[in-house]
Amino acid sequence: MAALKKFSVVHFMKDNTIEAVPSLWLNKKRSSCYFPPGSRSKLSKLRTGPTSEPDKESWENLVVKFKCTADTYQKASQQATHLQFTSTV
User: Fold this and answer.
1) Which domain of life does this protein belong to (predicted)?
2) Has this prediction a pTM greater than 0.70?
């Protein structure tokens, strides 16, 4: 497996959404991702920090399908938007 870039794009199987997240939030197999509880719209500052560590005690560990990586949050977010509207995820 190639080294991850700072951000990853993942498909959350539980709610069928695609999101850009810091790669540190993924497990080593890229099959699950920690994600904080609450509204996703309030998480932009936390998600855009490539070194933000997940709180493994209070965050959900959700099953994901890994899609791709990017060096910046902006690029990862663009990829997530593209995939959300052009694929059958």
Assistant:
1) Eukaryota
2) yes
